[in-house]
Structure formats: C-alpha cells, structure tokens
Amino acid sequence: MKKNNEIKTPTKLADLGEFGVIDKITKGFINSNNSSVLGIGDDAAVLDFKDNQALISTDMMVEGVHFDLAYMPLKHLGYKAVVSNLSDIYSMNGTCTQITVSIAVSNRFNLESLEELYLGIRAACKTYKIDLVGGDTTTSTKGLIISITSIGSAKSKDIVKRSGAQINDLIVVSGDLGSAYMGLQVLERENEVFKVNPQNQPDLSDYAYLLKRQLKPEARKDVIDFFADKKITPTSMIDISDGLSSEVLHICKQSNVGCDLYEEKIPLSKEMKSGCEEFKLHSTTIALSGGEDYELLFTINQKDYDKIKGNNDLTVIGHIIDSEKGINLVTKSEDKVPITSQGWKSF
Amino acid sequence: MKKNNEIKTPTKLADLGEFGVIDKITKGFINSNNSSVLGIGDDAAVLDFKDNQALISTDMMVEGVHFDLAYMPLKHLGYKAVVSNLSDIYSMNGTCTQITVSIAVSNRFNLESLEELYLGIRAACKTYKIDLVGGDTTTSTKGLIISITSIGSAKSKDIVKRSGAQINDLIVVSGDLGSAYMGLQVLERENEVFKVNPQNQPDLSDYAYLLKRQLKPEARKDVIDFFADKKITPTSMIDISDGLSSEVLHICKQSNVGCDLYEEKIPLSKEMKSGCEEFKLHSTTIALSGGEDYELLFTINQKDYDKIKGNNDLTVIGHIIDSEKGINLVTKSEDKVPITSQGWKSF
C-alpha cells in the first residue's frame, strides 16, 4: 500500500491566491544587470540605460495556436517563449537585459505546472543573463496564454534596423534554416502515432537535432557578440521567425531595394535534408517558409566580407540590387523566381 | 428593397492576414514623444530616455475574467485597458510616454470590432500623449485577450516606490473610492434584466457617474502634474486597482510600517453612497475592497501638508505609525479594526 505522504497532491492556484502564486514562481530569479534598478514588487520596474537607447519588443503565444502541450513540455515552452523574444532585441544589434512575463492560465493548470514553465523561463534568463522585472499572472477561460516583453539597449549608432540595406550589400544568414519546422513535422507525426497506439515507444534519436531546433531554440546573441568583436555594423537585420522569404521581403521593402538570393547557397542541415526526403517535402520551400529558426538575416557592406568569411556559421546567400529588378530567388537551374510570402498567417 | 452597397459586410481577419490587420488598426497612430525614436514596424521599438530612468509595467486582461463584452463596449474596453496600465507608471511619479499592445482574438471578431477596440486605445493615447510603439496581433482559441506594456521615465530622485512611507507621514488619496465597483453592480443588474426582457430600455441617467467610473476611468496624470507643480515628492505611492485595503497593505508591508486609517475620512461620491443604499451594500466595505478606481494612494511628510490642503481632490485619510501598532481602520465608532485583504483574487 502506498503511503499518503509519497503522493504529492498538486497545489491549486486558487488556494494560493494571486500574490502567493507570484511569490512561488518568481522565487529564485536574481537580477544580474546594473540597468535593473528596481524589479518585481512595485507598480513598475525601474531601469537605467544611461546614455544608451532602450529597445522594446513584445510577443504573445496562445496554446492551440502557437504551441501544443501534447508535444511541447512546459519547461521547453518557457525557454522558447523567452528566446523568441530576445531574438527580436538581438536583431536590432542590441543587448537584452530584462523581460516581463504575463501569463493567463485556465484552472487545469496547477502550481507545479506553472513552476515547470518558470523553470524554463529561468533557464533562459540564466543563459542569456536576463532579469525578470515584472509581469502579470491571471486566469484564462481556456488554455495558457503567455505574453513576454523584452527590453534591451544599445548605443544609437549601433542600432540596426530593417530599413538600411543598400545596393550591392551582401545578404548573410546565420546557422541553418528549416530544421525547426522539420522538428515540428516529426513531433506532429509521433503525436498521431501516439493517439493510435499509446504503447508505442518511438526512437527519435535520428531526429535529435531537428527536435532541439523546435523545442529548445537559441537566440543568436553569439552573432551580436561577434559583430562587436569584429567591429561590424550590419546595414540591416531581422530575425527569422516566419521563414526566410517573409523576412527578406521585410528587409527589401523597408529598405526600398531588391535582391538576388541564391537557392544553392541557403544553409540546410543534413538532418533537415534527410527529413525532407523522408517527409517528401521540398527543402528550399521549407527553408523559405518554415519559420521558428530564430537565425539572423542581415546585410553588410562588401568591404566587411573579409571580416565574416572565416566564420563557418555565417553564409552569404545573395546580394542587394535595385528595387526595380525585383526580389528574386535564383534557383539551382539559374531561373529567377520572384519571392512572395504572406508571412506566417496566424489568422 | 435595400441596395447591396448600403450593407457593410464585416471584414474577416483571415482575409487580411496578420500584416494587413496590423496596418489597418495602427493607422492613425502618430508618435508625439521625442523619446519615441523608432515605433511600429521593426523587430523592436527604440526609445531614448536621456538621463532619465525607464519605467516598465505590464498587465493582461482576459474576456470573461476581467471584462464582459455584454456590457463593456469595445471602444471603452480599449480606453480602459490603456488607462489602467498608465496608472501604474503615474503611481511611480513618472511620465508615461509609450505603450505596446498585444491582442489575441477568436474568429468571432472581425476587422470592424478590432477597429472599435483600437479607437478606444487611440483615444487614450491622445488624451495622455502616449505613443503606440509595438505589439503583437494573433489568434485565440476563445475570447479576447489584451496584454499592454506601458513605458515611461522619470529622474531617479523623483521616482516614488511603495516602500518609502515613514512614521508620522500622512496618508492621502485622490478622488473618491468605490464608484467604479458600484458602476459594475449597476451594469450587471441591467444585464440580468436584459436577459429576461430584451425589450426593456433602462434609464441609467441616475447612474451616469458610476458608469463613467467603471466604463471610462481616467488615470491621475493630473495629480502627478500637481506634484511637479508644487514640488511635492510623496514618500510612497500606489494606484488603487484592487481596493483601498489591498493597496494600503502593500504600502505598509513594503515600507515596514503600520497605519491608522479613518473610516469617516474615506472619500465617497454621493452617487456611490446612494447606490450602496439601493443595493444594500456597506459603503466602507466597497471602498476598501471595490477596486478599479485607479485613484492614487500616497504618503507625504507632514511638512508638505500645506501644499496639498487647498486641493479639494486630495483627502488625508490617515497617518503612518510604527509597524508594531498594526495596520488599522479606525471606524466611525472609534474602534480599531485590523485591515486584512487578499487583494483582488483572480484565481
């Protein structure tokens, strides 16, 4: 017979009350940035960026729309929610220092599940040296909703917008593309198998890289640090959350330029390529439309090429041309195809 | 026969796509603060607070938990959502200059309903001279969720925390308390009547003040301006979103002091008092626990009393005492009753 004290009863959020829940989940967060003057516990956080400019970005994630808890563990979800937000600050060539996290949860969540979520948030804060300085914790009528605002800073002269790309600039991307999307395909397939046969124990070791890209993506702080080290200021930059085509369109339209982007140059992982073969998907299409890779897409003046050519994690995939010449993909068969995209359609 | 062009078909959000929706709803927002260096349209907004410190606060509102669209028009909801956030920045004695707005909407919302919501958001931005500098627009599986982050700034020496109240300080409140809660009682009653008899046309003119307090509250920027004008720096401050008792507990606990708060001094509107009689509610209880008034509760050194005594909109309701003497309400019958509250229980 099992003893009673071996079973941990989940703690109902209602039993703790709002302030009790906040106390529990924010325990263990320690501020590490000098710019965090006052954190959680007052009406507003106080931040001091001295002579830097502040950078602010915000995102909302909704259960059943942006994530499925059937294959996204809460801890990974917390990590990914933070990382996807930080990525927006890095893509301005800024340093990210603070976040606020607001969540709404239905009554199927208990304290232990929220603690799992915040373990992931805390892990991301630790990895990227971010302070949690505020938020809101409330009830939803259905599912989990997470809204994160990330805050950073940069010197005015270092901030890189989407709108600065110039004709003849090189188009560069970090890492590889499409793997996060392929990770999602694997998870969705396993979830369908699980529904039919819950006893099935899948061996996902062949897909480890793809799953990591989907479940525990990283933001490219290292690339921003590389820029600082090499004294490179990209002329324009954006992070790849919606897929390469959507992002290159943003840069070209906001910079009022065109581009030639070479299909054969797009960096793909070997796992992503074999996944595409297995799932009978076209790898270029996935790289163009897949999203959630959180790599950086940027343009640099050609004079900076020597500074990046030794970095194996950065790939030149094209160059900026006059806007009248279009926004093109140059295919492996050397055809020019206009790049079109409506971005990620959340509606 | 009605002509076809007289009927305006609601516009489905899915037909516009994410970027189309964002373009439509952010049209007409014009930045008016010098600190807004870069607004909507890049990965992050760029703000410049010069030698001021930045203030950040965030809130999430969920349909069916924080508001009911049966009696809260979308335009009012947008206005109130902004105002309740700004109030947090003013309660730090700061100037509020920017907001980000993230929304998740289910498919029962169309473009026209979102435009109504953003009309209210824009009206609040205009009234308080706030720039909308970012946000996120996405789908929910149920209802409307609004998450707003408000951003402001202040000189370090002017920032007022919850934790600075000192023994013998006066406790002061702006405006009157409990009217917003009574407005909600009226709306809920009318909604029940409407369910039984939809033909009933209620005359709510007697409740105009209460309804205004519930549906279109204002943040007390004017009080912050008054402080600047009179060179007053409160020793502690908080806005009254959850009810007087919850807020006075926050100030006393975070300042490590006690207080005597006088029941007979608590400012109540005549409409609120007659509403309490009609609904058979105890007016002091409503003032203590009602919430959503967005008045400011603050403490000042006694030497500043002369500066506030001519302001009819500020009422001294008590004073700070040693923490060992407790956090008390002194009733009209001169009994001392400990003030307890769990704040507004959202779970």
Secondary structure elements and pairings:
The structure is a homodimer of 347-residue chains.
Chain A: H1 13-26, E1 36-38, E2 45-47, E3 53-62, H2 74-90, E4 95-105, H3 111-128, E5 131-139, E6 145-154, E7 170-174, H4 179-196, H5 208-215, H6 221-230, E8 236-240, H7 244-255, E9 258-262, H8 270-279, H9 283-289, E10 295-300, H10 305-308, E11 314-321, E12 327-330, E13 336-338
Parallel strand pairs in A: 4-5, 9-12
Antiparallel strand pairs in A: 1-2, 3-6, 4-6, 7-10, 7-11, 8-10, 9-11, 12-13
Main-sheet strand order of chain A equals 8-10-7-11-9-12-13
> What is the name of the CATH topology of the largest domain in chain A?
Phosphoribosyl-aminoimidazole Synthetase, Chain A, domain 2
Gap between N and C termini of chain A: 52 Å
Please report the total strand number of chain A as a whole number.
Answer: 13
The overall average pLDDT of chain A, rounded, is: 92
Top CATH class of the largest domain in chain A? Alpha Beta
- Number of structural domains of chain A: 2
* Biggest protein-protein contact in the assembly: A-B, 74 and 75 residues
Which CATH architecture of the largest domain in chain A?
Alpha-Beta Complex
- Gross morphology of chain A is globular
Order of helices and strands of chain A: HEEEHEHEEEHHHEHEHHEHEEE
**Poorly predicted runs of chain A:** 342-347
The percentage of residues in β strands of chain A lies in: 15-25%
CATH superfamily of the largest domain in chain A: PurM-like C-terminal domain
Quaternary arrangement of the chains shown?
Answer: homodimer
The helix-and-strand class of chain A reads alpha+beta
Q: What does the main sheet of chain A amount to? A: 7 strands, mixed
